[in-house]
Amino acid sequence: MRTPANKELFAARVAMGWFSQESAAQGVSDAGKLALRNTSYEVSVRTYRRWESAHPGWPRPDQATALRAAFGRGPEHLGFEVDEGAVVDIPVDGAGMIPSVKRRNALTAGAAVIGLPWLSPSSAGTDTSELRIGDRQIGELRATAADLDAIDQQFGGDRLWRSAKTQLNWVHHVIDRGTYSEAIGQELHSIAGQLTTSLGWFCYDADEQTEARVYFSEALNTAVVGGEHSLATRTLSNMARQSVDLDKPREAVRFIRTAEQYATKWEAPPRVSSLLAIRAAQGYARLGDEMNTSISIKRAWRTFDQGPTDRDPEWTTFLNEAELVCLEGMCRSDLGQHKRAVRLLDRSATLQDVEHSRNRGMCLARLAGAAAQDRDFDRTADAARESLRLIKGGQSSRRTRKQLVTVRERLGSHQDSPAVRDTIDLLTHHIA
Questions:
Q1: Of the candidates 363, 370, 367, 362, which has an alpha carbon nearest to the alpha carbon of residue 401?
Q2: Strand, helix or coil for residue 98
């Protein structure tokens, strides 16, 4: 069999186990249906055959999305030549797609926007031989991934996910083009997996739910193939949280049960068990299952009270006392126990520190909602104003904004109260 002219795309499909162009076209079509939420989406065999020819034209935006969903990388990594006027799926700001540029220029432009030292022009070269990766570069990449997670905790994901996507694209570029040892290669793949699940979380917080699902799926595949049980545990926990918000609580519980199986494989510490237990409680609460919700909450507190260990992964550090109280309050609210929810959420809001401002903003929005359900409209107004203050201070979580929209809707039937009308006007002015 003659090797197609586009060797990069050919190698990628063979690695996926698609040994014919027909099976590859079907695979990309299936990935596109999920990523684009279009059950009739299809990439024809003729189109795919053209992609593996010499000098394939740049794919349409929907095709670029389907390719990324199928192969875990964009067209710029799959042998497509970027012509002038084409668009690259590496948005670096809120304006959407950026004009066609060389790959190195696109990456360093993204670095200038988000201030990532690893992506500075002095760190990257046009010659593959310059991409020599060692312990120092690995340290910088890991520190950058940690910085992105810290920024999310304080400010939210809406202004972060595009920058994180650029960073992930760069890590894939390094994996594909860099020179490194086998041990460094394992580190790079581990970093890519952690960045991928973080990016899924940033997209979830930004209410880019389709994007989030694609990245979570990609991270889980990476974890399963690479035997990274910790990554699988983290990703399934993230997916469970998203499933609750998408009103798929049975799916959330199923994800957590699978996550617990992976947690056993690496003898996860108590703080991980606490996180999985409270995620299970959220699924049960949305189902209206009070008994299993309470059992899971008790298990979450029991393992949390065992304290931190030196084996706790970085992705569990957000789960402090304030956050666990908040998550319990959210469960009580979903069960319709609004007075109890108000007490818990009010306590959480007073405990949360500045490093976790996004979580405090979400907690305050949930408090406003629970107080509205409890007809405590003064507390609703106070919590809504404080949550809005955090948004004005730079918080960019769309989840928080959506929760405040829900609060406004709940207040709509109580406009006989002047305090309620004032709160509705405030939320309409700042959120709508």
A1: 362
A2: strand
